[in-house]
Amino acid sequence: MKAIIPIAFFAMLLWAGCESPATSQAAATENKETMDPSYNPEAKLQELGITLPEVGAPVANYVNTVRVGNLVYTSGKGPNTPDGGYITGKVGADLTQEQGYDAARLAAIQLIAALKAEVGDLKKIKRIVKVLGMVNCTPDFGNQPEVVNGCSDLLVQVFGDHGRHARSAVGMGSLPRNIAIEIELIAEVYP
Question: What is this structure's pTM?
Answer without folding.
Answer: 0.82
